[in-house]
């Protein structure tokens, strides 16, 4: 099977591309290597893919291309030349708070980028498009757990609005052109090789350096932290289930919300250091809790995320301390 994986130097995309290549598929990974965070981490992820595939004699299964999703002619040419059978679209401008100060980056990457991918799939008869949505689309609703059947009409950040727009765009293409699409609402993904702008990375770094950490909403937050291996397993299983109605959405979350204070304690235990906490009010664009209903994912794929926060944080902190020396 021939795949395009966008965001292939990113946290989730690099792991998905690697897994598909190890399974014997032909994978082209695409990323623009932008500087939203240190591009050296992205290059290190690509180097890791190369090393791992070489170790398993699978190095010919993966090729990397540096390209921007907003490059309409370039993306169209890529699809026409490569004739992908399936596409896993994970490339996007991430970050809730960054979207408040840099909205146009989200228009170019998340809206124009989604459009170029949809058009490429439409004109080249791609048999299944799987794309990243986000738990952010649920906004600040009080009903839990969050179900795919819930209305998601009130996003509270531009990032969330672009992800909701992606779902609507995919629905339109599924309806008009019978393009099978599956959206994945990821819930707070963490683990080795994670993003530096996310809490596990930021908190671990600060705790090890003896600096204070900012704890928003005075610590009264809950997150459905989901370990990267569980996310990858979910993506790989879902891409093999082409929706009979051409359009579907799944939550991929751990189904076990963790209080922020418990999350910090897990890092303290893993690092052997105490956190210095700076309690602050709620941030603009943030939500009080996330909690995934994963019954649809389990009934369709037979899988639900299962790695508990203590084990996942230990694995992350071990990687972090090794990576940073």
3D structure, described in words:
- With 325 residues, the protein is an alpha/beta fold.
- The chain is 43% helix and 17% strand.
- It has helices at 11-22, 39-55, 72-82, 98-101, 103-123, 158-177, 199-208, 228-239, 260-271, 295-301, 309-323; strands at 2-6, 26-31, 62-66, 86-89, 128-134, 181-186, 189-190, 212-215, 222-223, 226-227, 247-252, 258-259, 276-279.
- A seven-stranded parallel β-sheet has the order 3-2-1-4-5-6-11, sandwiched between helices. A two-stranded parallel sheet has the order 7-10.
- Strand 1 (2-6), helix 1 (11-22) and strand 2 (26-31) form a beta-alpha-beta unit.
- Helix 1 packs parallel to helix 2, helix 1 packs across helix 8 and helix 3 packs parallel to helix 5.
- The radius of gyration is 19 Å and the shape is globular.
Query: Could you tell me the number of beta strands?
Result: 13
Count of DSSP helices?
11
Spatial ordering of strands, largest sheet: 3-2-1-4-5-6-11
Helix content: 40-55%
What oligomeric state do the depicted chains represent? single chain
Structural class: alpha/beta
The H/E string reads EHEHEHEHHEHEEHEEEHEEHEHH
- Backbone CA Rg: 19 Å
Q: Approximately how much beta-strand content do the residues carry?
A: 15-25%
Instruction: Give the termini distance in whole angstroms.
Output: 39 Å
Main sheet overview? 7 strands, parallel
Stretches with pLDDT under 50, minimum 5 residues: none
**Shape call:** globular
Overall mean confidence score, pLDDT = 96
